Structure formats: structure tokens, C-alpha cells
Amino acid sequence: xxxxxxxxxxxxxxxxxxxxxxxxxxxxxxxxxxxxxxxxxxxxxxxxxxxxxxxxxxxxxxxxxxxxxxxxxxxxxxxxxxxxxxxxxxxxxxxxxxxxxxxxxxxxxxxxxxxxxxxxxxxxxxxxxxxxxxxxxxxxxxxxxxxxxxxxxxxxxxxxxxxxxxxxxxxxxxxxxxxxxxxxxxxxxxxxxxxxxxxx
Length: 200
Description:
The chain is of the alpha/beta class. The chain has five helices and twelve strands.
């Protein structure tokens, strides 16, 4: 299983790294616009985002819109012991480079401080399949985040079309996403329905 995961990880990451900057930026804007136009986002009281690295789909447009419209916004921070905790931010100024140079919250307001609210958890991934299986970087950070989420949280993966593959190898601890959003479509992984134009 580890070998098949690693082979897929290397293949997709190599393709992602080859994206020209202009192409990566344009695709990121399109994917984020699809999220912003969805009822998933409109009705969410809060969003948990990630800071994109190495040509991951950016979340900057979603972050700025959420802050502007009064949604509760969370970003992950690497905590002691190597786990990720979700921390609320009030503005972009609350983010600063962390241990690996990735922007993370400086503030101390943890996710639990904001109560039980409807949250869209936007997660990165190396590859996804139509059943919602997700291949990450192999450290299990987001699997643990999703396991400890709010009861009404919805997990959404952002991906380029080439990151959606026929099948992702899974282990018992791997957590699924409910939706996948690409530049071309929104995939409902529970009903395996696709919404190419109108995001529901």
C-alpha cells in the first residue's frame, strides 16, 4: 500500500510542479470562484483554509472574501508533537511564516473557542478519487484534523483536474472529503454527482 501511494504521490506532484506560474494562478482563481459561487460556501458560518505551497490550489481569494463577509476563518498551525490545530484569524496580518516557512496563525484562538458552528473545511491533497478518497503528503496531518472536526463540518478538497484519478489507495485511518472542486466541476463524492457549470 505504501509503495502504491508513494508512486501516485510522486507522479502527481511532478505534474503539479511543472505547472507554469501563470497557469497555476489562473486555475487557482477559477477553482476558488467555483467555491465562492457555491451554496456550500454561502451558507457556511466559517471556513478552515490552508496556506498553499508548491503549486497547490491557492485559497487567498476565499480567505479574503470570508474575512470581508464576516465568516469565521481558521488556518492550521503546527503544534507541539507535530499535530495541526485550527486557529481563528481576524485578518491576513494574523498569519506569519511558521516552522517550515508556511504562513500560519500567530494568534492563540483555537477552533474550539468558537463553539459548534457550520464550517467548510478546505483541505489540500496530492490526489483524489470520485469516492472522496484523498492522498496527502503522507504525514496524516489532515486525516487527524478531519477526525476531530465539528459534527456539522463539511470537508472539501481543492484540486486541478489532473489530480482527480480513478482510484486512490487507502488505509484504515485515511479520511475522505465530501466534495472535490476543480477548475471544471464540483464533485459530490457521496452521490458521485458532478456539477460542471452550476455549483449547487
